[in-house]
Amino acid sequence: MVEKTEDPHDERVGYGRPPKASQFKKGQSGNPLGRPPKSRSRAHIAGRVLGEMHRLSGQPKGARVRFTTLEVIIMTLKQLAAAGKSGASALYLRFSERYTQQERTQHSVGYLVVPEELTPEEWVARYSPKDMPPSDPEPFD
Question: The pTM is what?
Fold first, then answer.
């Protein structure tokens, strides 16, 4: 029987044996830059921008001075609507309707049914298990 020996100078090329010239060099990756970063969705970008904090000057002493971008936009929109700007009024009204409608749908409605008042004896008679033997009031000695 003929034994196969590994020859380091073997130049065979085929499946699983690429040419030496096209193989990766020692310590070199096939993808040096790595996988490209995932592109951010519009919702993610909007959430990040609207969540940024801003300092507002001119606030009364003791008042909060840091607000998110969304809070600043809503406060500005409210001031413009109060000043009589019709576009701001319409936008503020649509925003407030959408927000309050969303709040209403988040709270589920339920009912609590309270049974009539029972004496302790009536409660035991109604709700105690029927197949259980009565408990012995006197402990064993």
Answer: 0.45
